[in-house]
Amino acid sequence: MGVPVRQMRVEDPERAAVLLHPIRERILARLRTPASASEVARELGMPAPRVSHHFRRLRETGLIRRSGSRRVRNLTEILYTAIARTYIVAEGLTPGGEERRQLRNDTARRPLRNLIALGERLNGDALLLLDEAARDGREFSTYATAVDLAFPDASARAAFLADLLAAVKSLRERYGGTERTGAEARYTTIIACYPDRAR
Fold it and tell me: Residue 155: its pLDDT value, please?
């Protein structure tokens, strides 16, 4: 019986189109543990033929796999499991994503590429924590905030950056450490600063 991997990056357009269907998202969430199409149909309150159609598309694109069978009265039900617990769709498959992908390959835009990579990591890590919280009923100590800043000129922005880098260096020296004993609680901290284009 296959166990879903923690995370899958989807870069194939056909697979992404199948994955982003809202009903299939619900089916994949249920298939973190093995289930049959008829079982999922009952749990979702949907007609069995409709759910079977979505199962077929998920199988064809390799998003679920057969993981066993069981006898139910006079029938044998085939069980399926999702390939992954969480999915990240490549930015090139989202609206305007191809243009962003081309810009991402521009060496002059390395800071923007780094911002994208950190955003993807934050998104993936948060999804994994949500998955564990839902599956195990665990609680996690997390903190996130957004601070709006305004700089009158480039020198003020440079001064802020210098202060920020000094603070990060101090925190890294105090809490970072290179030796890990395995007993301490390990956390990831991501800090980002970028122009606000939403206003």
Answer: 92
